[in-house]
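Holo prediction — GNR.
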Amino acid sequence: MALLPIIELPDPRLRLVSQPVASIDAEIRRLMDDMLETMYDAPGIGLAAIQVAVAKRVAVIDVAREGDAPTPLCLANPEIVWASDECAAYQEGCLSIPEYYEDVERPERVRVRYLDRDGKMQELEADGLLATCLQHEIDHLNGVLFIDHISRLKRERVIKKFAKSARLRSEA
Ligand code: GNR
Ligand code: NI
């Protein structure tokens, strides 16, 4: 297993649309395992492959609370097949936008179809934090970030802040 570097705003690769996985082979399983290790180390509750600069439709999630038994979830080609009309707001964060948190409103419940680590087609219905995280990760696979769901003023402010710190770092 290996820790992978996580790319951050304003890296333009975060805006790529990731490519579907043809089959779950050893390379994809290794990617999933490395992503889980990277996510637990961060620590985070989800990670999309594009965050480690791999433009494949792969994500990992574990919303178990610290101290509880881990519940790792590996998803390839995840798709929302149903979303509730009711919405819920959660304070979201993103490992690619460190230390920035904002409320985002999304459907409260979703049903997601995906291939698991064994290449088996699965369906999962979720609410609460898991529903939020599934939607956040599927957004990443489409080049969408949680800041795309907040006000333009707040979004432009955070993009500017990260662009400036990247510039200062490159000048240092
Ligand atoms: O660690 C994470 N926490 C989080 C909190 C609320 C909603 C979504 C998330 S996902 C985030 C990790 C991440 O950036 N995944 O892409
Ligand atoms: Ni994220």
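READOUT: The chain has a mean pLDDT of 98.
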